[in-house]
Amino acid sequence: MTQSLARIRFVLVGPTHTGNMGAVARAMKTMGLTRMELVAPSRAPDAEALARASGADDLLARAGIHRDLVEALVGCRLVIGASARRRTLEWPLLEPPECARQLIAESSAGEVALVLGRESSGLTNLELAHCHYLVHIPADPRFSSLNLAAAAQVLAYEIRRAWREERRDRLEEPARDLATAEEMEGLYRHLVETLREIGFGDPEQSHKLMRRLRRLFNRARPDRVELNILRGILSAAQGRKTAERSPRRLDATNPATQLQNKPCSSD
Ligand code: SAH
Question: Domains of the chain, with CATH numbers?
Fold first, then answer.
């Protein structure tokens, strides 16, 4: 699964501030992204880049340096360009969460890229033409241009969120050994019996009380171990302190045990 993050490359086109290159590397690494490509940077990453990378220098060291965008996109099946402006030309525009979902979904099949533009002028129309979609962070339209690394951070975070969501969907909740219907009936009979024995409540009212208690325990959906704990507590309340002396403390899964419980008129 982390493989899908490794297949997402961030391509910086014509960055001029080496500090931004470092800050993008840091933004990426915090979100589990590892692959950065630089297209015609004004300078190679330097000390300023390293300082701003603040520990993400491995990404900088591995970053490929390319002459043009085409070279940086080799092998990519999906390319999304980040734009600070809502372009007027007809270009499919995504919001960050949808962009992230697309990148994650397609990265399970191959390499994908997110392209970020120059600090001064963004991406040219020619560069946009290499993109399948554009993504725009819906900032205030009167001041919508984020710093390059800030934009990278927002988009990287959305990618991580989408990745985590997908992972959560995949990891099924480990199957719990839930108590069965008849085991729950055994618990309820035991409960009624115990409540009577300890003088709790009015038997006339017990119908309503038991309905409420059933609702409570059914909502909790106890597993077998939890059910046995509850029955152990009931047995203790009945004065049967040890498992050996208490038939009701026996395994609730044993139907014979349940049959020993008196039938309950109130449930
Ligand atoms: N002055 C440039 C903006 C450059 S900001 C312009 O008007 O296009 C540098 C890069 O950061 C942009 O090219 C884009 O890739 C990214 N970026 C900045 N703000 C963004 C936003 N609101 N949505 C998406 N990407 C953004």
Answer: 2-166 (3.40.1280.10), 181-244 (1.10.8.590)
